[in-house]
Amino acid sequence: EIVMTQSPATLSVSPGERATLSCRASQSVSSNLAWYQQKPGQAPRLLIYGASTRATGFPARFSGSGSGTEFTLTISSLQSEDFAVYYCQQYNNWPLTFGGGTKVEIK
Amino acid sequence: EVQLVETGGGLIQPGGSLRLSCAASGFTVSSNYMSWVRQAPGKGLEWVSVLYSGGTTYYADSVKGRFTISRDNSENTLYLQMNSLRAEDTAVYYCARGRAGANYFDYWGQGTLVTVSS
To answer: CA-CA distance, B71 to B52, in Å (whole number)?
Structure first.
């Protein structure tokens, strides 16, 4: 099983600042990596797929990068609606696995 | 508009059985990869099972032999039959659509809570 490790667990950021979230895979997943955003009481929402392609409805301040085992989600200028938990997910191998999440909170 | 609506959750005793349903609209379940993903209270996401359009299924080791994924094409509905339930199966269960034949999820239901407790 591929283990996905996200860091940090919690990120405290002021509105307007840049946030950088990390996701590491225990073995290569190529570019088969997705990111999801989850707000309290809601289902996750697809944010990024193919490591760097933004899903419909998300603005350009969200960007994903990386391949192999190291991936990054960057939010260039945090807005109030961006405070949430972010999960990465690999879909290169079975079983599909998620990272433990990074909570982005208001500083 | 794509919609997924899960039902069937509730409180069940350890060792019991429950069947979850996921009614889909706006697309055809049988033409897509459909998964169940769960989230224990206050915890992260865990993939549970997938049903491919061709009928192939996969399960997480934690549920293999106890859970069965299926669909009813006439009802456009996905199911998860859960047997021999354990306390550690307590979670919100989401159904999710795999996008364009891939194993990441572009649409999710609102989830249904399963609580396994005596």
So the answer is: 10
